[in-house]
Amino acid sequence: MRNAAFVAALVAATSLCGLSAAAQDADGDAVVAIVNGEELTRADLVASYEALPEQYRQMPVEAVYEPLLQRLVDGELLLQRAEKESIGDEEEVAEAVRRAQEDVLRQAYLARAIDAKVTDEALQAAYEARKGMPGFATEEVKARHILVETEEEAREIIVKLEEGADFAELAKEHSTGPSGPDGGDLGYFERGAMVPEFGDAAFAMEPGTHTADPVKTDFGWHVILVEDKRTTEPTFEELEPQLRQELAAQSVTEVLEDIRDGADITRFNIDGSEQAVEEEPKAE
Fold first, then answer.
1. Which residues contact 231 (CB under 8 A, 6 or more apart)?
2. Structure confidence by residue, pLDDT tens digits, 171-202
3. Domain 138-232, what fold?
4. Which part of the chain has CATH 3.10.50.40?
5. Which residues of the chain form beta strands (DSSP E)?
6. Are 122 and 247 in contact (CB under 8 A)?
């Protein structure tokens, strides 16, 4: 038996059926149930599935078919009984239906407006514009380190390095850090990934050099070797979800501003008195 959260999700999903684009599926007319002569179609079922929370949509529709179908049938039974008893004619229910219908219309209008503005071309243009902004590219350092307990030990290791010793071998022999067995290899990391003392020292160095003086952190004393530096940029695919969200929010703002500009609006205070109209400042 499905848990309560899943059942609740199904209840919510069945109340939203018909709002999904899946209703346009070529097989959407396939009948999945007949309830007192009323046909329920595959489109209804798939729409309910797509209205489920994301964690349930990770499962294939076949895995939730039976409980989803049962909720769809139950929803139709409840609807038929409500119509039979003319519950929709009750003032409170009719008002709730009206509000729900208005909300669906609002959301549908906004969705259409967003789709018109958030195009592939707009997303690509937003990505290109983002390229020129500070912080778009990420600087990374590839480094190794040797961690020891005392400054004296660290200085002795620096002397050995200056005499030509291999950094990776010294790390394997002396480092107490978890990267020691790997020759102290830390791979690439960006600013802020390491404790400030370590990160500041590493990013101040040139590739192919090691620290002339040990670096002290809460972990101990470090000898650092910087092997490489690089600058990376996020790809369009990596940024697309964020760009899409930003453009959608911007589109909503633009749509509302445009609608407000052409509307005749009078506002009232909570006591019923008319609010004073604020005059826009005149351009000088």
1. 137, 138, 139, 140
2. 999 999 999 999 999 999 999 999 999 999 99
3. Chitinase A; domain 3 (3.10.50)
4. 138-232
5. 31-35, 38-41, 138-148, 185-190, 209-210, 215-217, 220-232
6. yes
